[in-house]
Amino acid sequence: MKNLTLSTATLMIMSINTYGESIQAIPEVSTTQESTQQPIKVQTVRGILGEYDLMEHTKGQLRAGYITFSEDGTSRTSAYALGGHYHFNTKRWNGLMVGAEAYSVLNLGINQNSLNTNSDFFDLEEKSFILLSQAYLDGKWGNTEIKLGRQALDTPHADSDDIRMMPNYFEAYTVTNTDIDDLTLSAGMIDKMAGWENGVNSPDFVDVGETLGVNDDIDGIFYASAVYEGIKDLSLSLWYYHYSDIADVVYAEAGYSYILSKNTTFTLGLQYDGSHETGAALLGKQDADTYGISLEAELTDLGITLLAAYNQDNGETGATGLSLGGGPFFTSMEDQTLDSIGGAGKAWMIGAGYNFENIGLNGLCFGLAYGSFEADDASVYKSREIDAVLEYSLSEKLSVTAAFASIDHKVTTIEDYDQFRLIANYNF
Question: Is residue 38's pLDDT more than 80?
Fold first, then answer.
């Protein structure tokens, strides 16, 4: 099957991948990556911005960041930070390998007044921290790979969402098999989560139940998936999640690529996400039936990429509170996602990106996106978001990303706000 590779310009429109890789292992030792083709990518705003680049995190990275947030009626908050990590792994012995990664974030102390400090970069007390972000045992035998311990995951409902100083990490136990041609099977259990979206304290691996808002620990999130790529220009994926005593979730996605001409490629994405409460229903009723469609046009001769997406939820409660990370929805943007609505509703977005390579500025890309998020009862939730993103890759090792988001709430009880972040990465 033809493997669709997106240009750097596409980075300016942001993405959600058709999820073929549930295990993030070191490239040179991953059975999954060696034996299967990469799936067709269905682009969204949040996915590109939060993409966890495996190659960049294979050995080490230094990161500098700035963020500022302003909400109507309150003081602006901001933060400056330095961070980085170093990753190492042993050689394999009888199929086994040990991997580890230390991650650190340093508060530069420029904003000492806690009232003016943006806490997204730091720990619960807005201080520097260091943690063992990855520590796993990886076993590879034939076409089967097992990974146990702290690791990076990128699945529809649990992902790294790397848009702050440190991405999300998970304590998980996963297995992937590729014995059948063009078919990747995976299963796993997610027990704990660390990172800026764990809802408790970034450097702590906390029980996923606590992250989801449950007072008590739960037995974990169990998942199984199948990704098929045996049909030319088509990727199909099916995922099942069991959130103990919370909900069962089914996610399905299809991505189809059509090459109209040498310089023009269209990508169509379709998705379904359904959730229903189970067991003790610790988060209350869950009833979501979400459908999505995405269409992308890549015009390489012009350096332009165009994107449009739509999501509609027909359930009683909507897709709420079950994503550990940026979430799977095609309309997800820098800030707003479909589950931000807090109930049933709809969302749409349009975007455009431009690669300045066409006028001699290699490595420079710019993108704009506009999105709408609205509950079935618009008096409860209705918002608009504008995103502007500039990315400059000075070399294979050094890159800078600037992202601005402006959120305009149409409901009088919710204040408007805007945020800007600047992240520079040096990979070694």
Answer: no
Residues 6+ apart with CB under 8 A from 347: 310, 311, 329, 331, 336, 338, 341, 371, 372, 373, 374
DSSP secondary structure code for residue 49 in this structure: H
| DSSP reduced 3-state for 279 | coil
Strand 221-231, strand 183-194: pairing: antiparallel
Residue 97: closest CA among 147, 148, 144, 137: 137
Q: Are 159 and 239 in contact (CB under 8 A)?
A: no
Classify residue 202 as exposed, middle or buried by CB count within 10 Å of its CB (0-12, 13-18, 19+): buried
| Per-residue tokens: 218 | 């739960």
The vertex-79 CA angle with 74 and 80, nearest 5°, equals: 160
Over residues 198-224, the mean pLDDT reads 95
Tell me the pLDDT tens digit for each residue of 341-356: 999 999 999 999 999 9
Q: What DSSP assignment string belongs to 75-110? A: --EEEEEEEEEEEEEPPPBTTEEEEEEEEEEEE--S
The whole model's pTM is what?
Answer: 0.88
Phi, psi of 84, rounded to the nearest 5 degrees: 165, 175
Residue 356 · residue 366 · CB < 8 Å: yes
Residue with tokens 């066409």: 358
- Tokens 């069962």 belong to residue: 248
What tens digit of pLDDT does each residue of 301-318 get? 999 999 999 999 999 999
